[in-house]
Specification:
A hairpin with a 2-residue loop joins strand 4 and strand 5. This protein starts with 5 loop residues before the first helix and ends in a 5-residue tail after the last strand. It is an alpha+beta fold. A seven-stranded antiparallel sheet has the order 2-5-4-6-7-8-3. It folds into two domains: 62 residues, no CATH class; 161 residues, no CATH class.
Length: 240
């Protein structure tokens, strides 16, 4: 079946550049293969040129997102605080409908006790998707803009019997156990939990996602896990 790129054809007809179309496709959740196919179809672009342009657009998008952390906010009025304000039960989805629930409910992996599982609350997609760009902003800032952080610490987490060391490292970081934490698994996969749960069930939280990004509603810090490496950054110059 032919790809339906009508929306992007309209963008091109309206004068949008290939980079702008690639960035929009990325925001819409298209993976690299789909974006390259899109560029080749909409702009009649050779394969190599499409690959290079998509990489350029990705770098530009990363810089734009990272720059989103340049602005300082009062902790109670951060973008995350605004996006999560006045949550009620309708803003969460049942654990049974969450794609990553098997990590915490399937006996083949682990079954988290009910009283602790209740502290991991999956957000409905309508609430999760708006937080996706904020997660990417933290990710790119942490790796591209060290000037935005007063402290950056790293720890190797091989996921074997040394994982207890990683949990101990997490517990030694500044966040308080009761602090509310957003954990981002993917564009439509976000949970609200607390720092104690992140520390105690670290292995279960990071198991099935290549990039786990966590941060508090105050946006004072962020945590990223990828390729057996934990990176923690404390934001610089935030107002309290």
């Amino acid at each position: 079946m032919a790809d339906d790129f009508g929306r992007y054809e309209s963008m091109r007809a309206g004068g949008a550049s290939p980079q702008a179309v690639s960035r929009e496709a990325r925001r819409e959740g298209l993976d690299a293969i789909a974006r390259i196919r899109l560029l080749r179809s909409v702009y009649a672009m050779p394969f190599r040129e499409a690959v290079e342009l998509d990489a350029l657009a990705a770098a530009e998008e990363a810089a734009i997102l990272a720059a989103g952390l340049e602005r300082r906010h009062v902790a109670s009025h951060t973008p995350t605080a605004v996006l999560t304000r006045e949550l009620d039960d309708s803003d969460f989805r049942p654990m049974s409908e969450f794609p990553w629930a098997w990590m915490w409910t399937d006996p083949r992996w682990n079954v988290i006790p009910p009283e602790r599982l209740s502290r991991i609350r999956p957000l409905a997609e309508s609430r999760a998707i708006p937080l996706h760009d904020r997660a990417l902003a933290f990710f790119h800032a942490l790796h591209l803009r060290s000037d935005l952080f007063s402290q950056i610490a790293r720890c190797d987490d091989p996921g074997d019997d040394r994982s207890e060391a990683a949990k101990g490292w997490l517990r030694g970081l500044p966040p308080a156990e009761e602090e509310a934490v957003i954990v981002h698994f993917g564009r439509e996969g976000v949970v609200l939990t607390d720092w104690a749960t992140v520390c105690d069930y670290w292995d279960d939280l990071n198991y099935a996602t290549p990039h786990l990004i966590a941060w508090p509603i105050s946006e004072e810090w962020t945590l990223h896990h990828h390729d057996d490496r934990l990176t923690f950054g404390m934001r610089a110059g935030l107002e309290s």
